[in-house]
Structures are given as structure tokens and as C-alpha cells.
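Anyone opening a protein record will find just a pair of labelled lines. A complete record is shown below as an example:
=====
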Amino acid sequence: MSESNQPASLSINGVEIEDTFAEAFDMKATRLIVTAIDHQWARQAVSAMSGFGTSVIDCKIEIDIERELSGEETPDGRPGYAVLAFAMSGGDLEKQIIKRSGQCVLTCPTTALFSGLEAERDSTNKRMALGKTLRFFGDGHQISKWIDGQRYWRIPVMDGEFLCQHDVPRIDGIGGGNFLLVASSLPVALNAAKVAVDAIAESPGVIAPFPGGVVRSGSKVGSKYKSMIASTNDAYCPTLRGVVDSKLSSRQNAVLEVVLDGVGFESIAGAIATGVKAACQAFGGQGLLAVTAGNYGGKLGRHHFKLHEILR
């Protein structure tokens, strides 16, 4: 290859950015708004609702808090949270949303549940039940109300009433956006990942559904065991250098991944740029050595987030 055909290198604050791409796939998505008498109770509800919601591989849903909302931003004027949820099919998404709303929001004192996609209601005829199904808990004492053209349900509970919107629109989303932080040590990788996730938390339309927004068990497709559809990403496991075809040099001793789901390509691309730049600015020259991304050669998903294009 001639010198002119060599791929252009890119670094941010001394951190090498590999010329590769994150590969993501189509998902179904929705946004919910949970309110309560204060943020403490609203937080309790959405934390329970998003539990065991890290990966569709076994949880069947990826769900997390998008952002905190003030009373000025919610339908009933009370404090709350916006939650984004993603699944591989509309059926899986609706099934999980109903179960989690019934067990984690309806049960939590003072809460109410609303659609967070009202701006999209007129542009799609795809709906998922909320109060339409949850109302039956009222055992015939539930009351339907129409306000500004939208149907709500008032379900009697022991602290008063649970107010719940009838349904919520469903939209197309993208899952599996990602980047990997390659560091000289685990403390550096942990701190760089925390800085990245904290920065991404301000990005609208995106969630990082794993614990703390970070994954240590990055995976590759398939396994030597037939029952496993994914297994450890051995090329990035530092303890396997010398055993497998490793991607890590002798200086690279810890790798952490940030996985992102979003309501659109630009949401994820913006979050990748925000997270990577924040980590590089904080830990370039202090042990963060490289940034790369996970892909499967373009065979898994049609959405490709090219790091050099996003970060230049």
C-alpha cells in the first residue's frame, strides 16, 4: 500500500482512536414518563422498572432512565423521570412494559404513568397498552377520563388513585452502539468510563443500560458451546494474551465498553462523540491508551458508527 493510501490516524489528547466502527441493529422503542410526589419516589419506581433490563440477550428488554424531569416538564406538573425502553420486537417490548409498569410503577406510592412520545403520536399508528391493560387491577372501580383528546385511567389504590395514560406510541430505535476504552490499568479504565458515562447522561434520546453504563463482559457472536449465542470477547481479555489472537499490546491491561441504545442514528453518534471526547480529555496521557469499537464485520446490523467520521 502506498503512503497516500494509508488510513489517516486520529488521536484525541494523545489517545489513539482506531479506524473502525461500532455495529448496531434495529430495535423497537418507546419512552415513558413516571412522576410522583417527589423525585425520591419517582426514582424508586423507575429504578425498579429498569432492573434486569441490560440486554435483550436474556432480559428481553433494554431499559434505563433517560433523564430527570422537573415539574414543568411533566404532564401532571410533578417531578419525575423519562425512561427509554428497547426490544427486538413490538410484542416483546409491550409484554415487558406492561409487566414492569404493573409490578414496579403501579405498586410504588404516589406514582403516575404517562406516554413520553406525544410528539410522535400523530406520525405513527403503532401503540402499546398502558392503562388499557393495567386498568383491570381496579376490579371494575376504574374510571376513564378524556383530557385534551387523550384517554387516561384512574385506578383506585390504597394511597388514593393511580393515574395512567391509556397507551403510548412505539417507534423504531437502534441498539448496540458502543465504544471500548483501552487503558494501562483497571483504575484508569474505570475512571475513564465513569467520566464518559457522566457526560453521556446529558445526551437526549439515548441510554447506556448496563450497570453504571459500563460493560466489562464485552462479547463476540457465538461460542464453542452450541447453547451459547454469545461469549467472551477473548481478543480484548488481557489474561488471554498469548493464548488467543489478542488485540491488546503488553501495555494494555484493562478494557471497558460503553453500550448505547438510542431513538435514532444521530442520538447515538452524538453520545459516542461526547463520551469518547470526555474520557480522552480527562485521561489522555494518564493511562487511557486507545479507543476502539465492537463490530462483527457488518454482518450483525445495518447501522455503522465510524469512529473517525464521528470524532473528527
Summary: The mean pLDDT is 96. The two ends are 24 Å apart (CA to CA). Helices lie at 39-49, 90-105, 131-134, 186-200, 265-283, 307-311.
